[in-house]
């Protein structure tokens, strides 16, 4: 029970990495609030996570939504030991195809969302809390055709460093996790055919040194380490979980 008596908030916790992390945190003794926009999945998520989970509706791009979520979490949990700012979106696009709508969406979900999620819960983070920001392997190296998402995630990686300094006095630790190409529903949200998704996944797998895409649980275990007191001397870093893609 590595998170016994701890409480956590996971944004984007109704699918993929966030949901796998919620499952693991609860198994390790935590109470967990997860958020998402699509309420049609909430009953299924509640049933899966059980009585130690709160499932809350909100868009990380909305400051009002994040304040309302923070108020609900405060009322239910009293305070927070762990924040996993996980909600995010990746979308491939050549520079010529970036329009203002896509720019705003990628930057708002990935960067604005993280800034105002933290701001909303800041008063409720307990001394010694762990904050984990979800970045991406695409910001580790130059990548073709995904510059906007990579830039957004690079900004988030920078926030983990700056905030680590800013909250040293409250003993709040900030770290990032950079997932590689993980087999989650993320890529299916790009509106492409099942065949296209299957082909892309096969391409991703071929390009990864270990030869296969990661699972959401691979990132969840990294999040568990950063959330737990076992990582109490780990501050401002980024843990890369990508099957060697950016390192070998
Ligand atoms: N999968 C990968 O290969 C990969 C690689 C590197 C980094 N990552 C990062 O890992 C994180 C999780 O990705 P995933 O693969 O688990 O994706 P996923 O399965 O698509 O899950 C995304 C989660 O975020 C929520 N979400 C999306 N936009 C939101 C918004 N505006 N406000 C609130 N919640 C929102 C989704 O719920 P709703 O849609 O209902 O809101 C869902 O719960 C993201 O930050 C992503 O960039 C993933």
Automatic annotation (TrEMBL):
<dbReference type="InterPro" id="IPR057326">
    <property type="entry name" value="KR_dom"/>
</dbReference>
<comment type="similarity">
    <text>Belongs to the short-chain dehydrogenases/reductases (SDR) family.</text>
</comment>
<dbReference type="InterPro" id="IPR051122">
    <property type="entry name" value="SDR_DHRS6-like"/>
</dbReference>
<dbReference type="GO" id="GO:0016491">
    <property type="term" value="F:oxidoreductase activity"/>
</dbReference>
<feature type="domain" description="Ketoreductase">
    <location>
        <begin position="6"/>
        <end position="180"/>
    </location>
</feature>
<protein>
    <submittedName>
        <fullName>NAD(P)-dependent dehydrogenase, short-chain alcohol dehydrogenase family</fullName>
    </submittedName>
</protein>
<dbReference type="InterPro" id="IPR002347">
    <property type="entry name" value="SDR_fam"/>
</dbReference>
<keyword id="KW-0560">Oxidoreductase</keyword>
<dbReference type="InterPro" id="IPR036291">
    <property type="entry name" value="NAD(P)-bd_dom_sf"/>
</dbReference>
<dbReference type="Pfam" id="PF13561">
    <property type="entry name" value="adh_short_C2"/>
</dbReference>
